[in-house]
Structure formats: C-alpha cells, structure tokens
Amino acid sequence: AQARAGIISTVEVLKVMEAFVNEPNYTVWSDLSCNLGILATLLSHTDFYEDIQAFVRDVFSPIGERLGWDPKPGEGHLDALLRGLVLGKLGKAGHKATLEEARRRFKEHVEGKHILSADLRSPVYVTVLKHGDSSTLDTMLKLHKQADMQEEKNRIERVLGAISQPELIQKVLTFALSEEVRPQDTVSVIGGVAGGSKQGRKAAWKFLRDNWEELYNRYQGGFLISRLIKV
C-alpha cells in the first residue's frame, strides 16, 4: 500500500517478498501473487517486464518444487489450492520445467490417457495457452465444446485470454460473443483477455468499444456491464 502511494520504493517491497520463499501458507502466497500480478501489469509497457517475470520464477520455484505436481498423503484443501496457484504462476512466467510438465500432462489429458484433476486444470490450461499457438487454442475450444459440465466450460472460458498472438486474441474475443458462450459468461472471456497480456488489454478495450451497443443492450445496465467496464 505504501509503495502504491509512492511513500516507499517498490524495490523495498520486492525485498520483503523475497523473504517469503519458505512460506507454507496459501493466503500469504495468494496475496504475493496478486501484488506481483499488479506489478507485472504496470511493468508490461516497460523494459522491466522480463525482469519481473524472472523475479516471479525465482520467488515461486522453491515452493513449486516442494509441492510438486501430485497430492501428498494428509494434504488439506489449502495445499491443493496452493499447488494450483503456484504452478499457474510459474507456468505463466515461463518457468521451463513447469511448462514442459504442463504440456506433457495436457497432451495426456486431451488424449484421454490421464485425465487432469480439477485443481490442476486451470494452471495447466493457462500455461499451455500462454506459450501456445493456434492448434493449442483449437484444442481448448474443442474441450470447451465437449465439456459436459458447465463448471468445466467456465474454467476454460476464464483462461482463454492467456493466448498471446494478436490474431488468436481476436478469435477468443469473437468466441466470447458466439452462441457457444452463455451471455452471463461472455464477461469472463473478455475479462480474461483484458487481464491476459498487454496486447489482450488493448484488443479487449477496442472490442468493447466496437461492440458496445450489443453488449449494453444485452446487459441493460445490470451488474455485468459494470463488471465488464471494471475489467
């Protein structure tokens, strides 16, 4: 809060964050993740963006290695949440070992050889999409179409915006307004694009303006339109 107010240097905050490498608590990591996400967004228009990604990899990799990919006996619900948070953070930041393992598990999941547990799906999806191409996106849209449960459809909708290439970002935004997505879930897809990358933010803002009439008429000034503007 002090750094955001300009009272202390952000460098001081980063030094404090480094002290949490041995922290086991999910709530603390969730807070660190959120604040690093805000910093990454602010730095996405500068030369320091790669540096902050490297910092994320450094801070999160020890806890990632400790937790591993598979649940251990006697683990609680918060450990599962922490694993998903940490692996997703490392994957998005381009941590090599996490990316390779996520791709391997995603391939097995798609082929039906080894279905991903529910708590690992979001981090794996977001990792492969962030560093994926058009075939990755097509596979994800196919999974969306085949999903029996709305929960799985929503999970996929929230992460589609992680894709990086401009033409694929446009494809995701077009998908957001298609009949494949329930009107109440369109906001999640557009919000995911806006939060996914610098390119996504610009594209989502342009998309909102270009389709404002349709979106406004669809939500009639309800809470979803205000959420859309906020994201």
TrEMBL record:
<dbReference type="InterPro" id="IPR024571">
    <property type="entry name" value="ERAP1-like_C_dom"/>
</dbReference>
<keyword id="KW-0031">Aminopeptidase</keyword>
<dbReference type="GO" id="GO:0005615">
    <property type="term" value="C:extracellular space"/>
</dbReference>
<keyword id="KW-0645">Protease</keyword>
<dbReference type="Pfam" id="PF11838">
    <property type="entry name" value="ERAP1_C"/>
</dbReference>
<dbReference type="GO" id="GO:0006508">
    <property type="term" value="P:proteolysis"/>
</dbReference>
<dbReference type="GO" id="GO:0005737">
    <property type="term" value="C:cytoplasm"/>
</dbReference>
<dbReference type="GO" id="GO:0008270">
    <property type="term" value="F:zinc ion binding"/>
</dbReference>
<dbReference type="GO" id="GO:0043171">
    <property type="term" value="P:peptide catabolic process"/>
</dbReference>
<feature type="domain" description="ERAP1-like C-terminal">
    <location>
        <begin position="2"/>
        <end position="230"/>
    </location>
</feature>
<dbReference type="GO" id="GO:0070006">
    <property type="term" value="F:metalloaminopeptidase activity"/>
</dbReference>
<keyword id="KW-0378">Hydrolase</keyword>
<protein>
    <submittedName>
        <fullName>PSA aminopeptidase</fullName>
    </submittedName>
</protein>
<dbReference type="GO" id="GO:0016020">
    <property type="term" value="C:membrane"/>
</dbReference>
<comment type="similarity">
    <text>Belongs to the peptidase M1 family.</text>
</comment>
<dbReference type="GO" id="GO:0042277">
    <property type="term" value="F:peptide binding"/>
</dbReference>
<dbReference type="InterPro" id="IPR050344">
    <property type="entry name" value="Peptidase_M1_aminopeptidases"/>
</dbReference>
